[in-house]
Design goal:
- The chain is an all-alpha fold.
- The protein is 79% helix and 0% strand.
- The chain is built from four helices and no strands.
- Helix 1 runs antiparallel to helix 2.
- It is elongated.
């Protein structure tokens, strides 16, 4: 899975988790939803995503890096 798709999946998971926690544990967990939304919003303008930075350090490759690796492998 590419870095871009992983970040999208992680953001979606965090929103769903925060909604469940808000309903079942404490209403204050709604702030996690707000934080995730604010991060997505700022990332659309700045291109900076803290989750993507962490995932890159964990070894996730961007779609471009995966395509280049595939080209090198087939050549």
């Amino acid at each position: 899975m590419s870095l871009e798709r992983s970040v999208t999946a992680f953001a979606g998971f965090m929103v769903l988790l925060s909604v469940i926690l808000t309903q079942l544990v404490h209403p204050g967990f709604v702030w996690l939803t707000v934080f995730v939304g604010a991060n997505l919003f700022q990332q659309s303008f700045t291109g900076f995503c803290p989750a993507a930075t962490v995932m890159q350090k964990l070894g996730f490759k961007t779609e471009r890096e995966q395509a280049l690796a595939e080209q090198e492998h087939t050549a």
